[in-house]
From TrEMBL:
This is Basic blue protein. Residues 1-23 form the signal peptide. The keyword Lipid metabolism does not apply. Residues 32-125 form the Phytocyanin domain. GO terms for molecular function: electron transfer activity; metal ion binding. One of its GO terms (cellular component) is plasma membrane. It comes from Capsicum annuum (Capsicum pepper). SUPFAM superfamilies: Cupredoxins. The lineage of its organism: Eukaryota, Viridiplantae, Streptophyta, Embryophyta, Tracheophyta.
Length: 125
């Protein structure tokens, strides 16, 4: 009896590991990487870039820009609306952000850049 129970537990553990492996491969296969601003990169006037795109949870958005000229700040809606740079800041010039569910707000924290349209709101479902 104990041998049958032990065999069932081993079978169950192997089955669960298989489901986890297949599930993570399906999730990874369905993600998309987007370059913010397409060929123009993360720059002034990019605020309409997300329009018409269907972002999903786990998608990656990449901010390409000359290091030291711009940055990327994740802000809340109020700071997005008011162009206030208060949040996590990226400065590498090739920043990658994986999207979570809901809307994420990004601005450039360099003075005048957000007001010049260097901000995007991205909603992932």
């Amino acid at each position: 009896m104990l041998g049958k129970l032990k065999g069932s537990v081993i079978f169950f553990v192997i089955l669960m590991m298989l489901f986890i492996t297949i599930g993570s491969q399906i999730t990874n296969a369905s993600t998309t990487t987007y370059n913010v601003g397409d060929n123009g990169g993360w720059t002034l006037g990019v605020s309409n870039w997300p329009n018409g795109k269907n972002f999903k949870i786990g998608d990656v958005i990449v901010f390409n820009y000359p290091k030291g000229v711009h940055n990327v700040v994740i802000v809340d809606k109020a700071n997005y609306d008011n162009c206030k740079s208060s949040g996590k800041t990226y400065k590498s010039g090739n920043d990658r952000v994986t999207l979570d569910r809901g809307t994420t707000y990004f601005i450039c924290g360099i003075a005048g850049h957000c007001d010049g349209g260097q901000k995007i709101a991205v909603t992932a479902n």
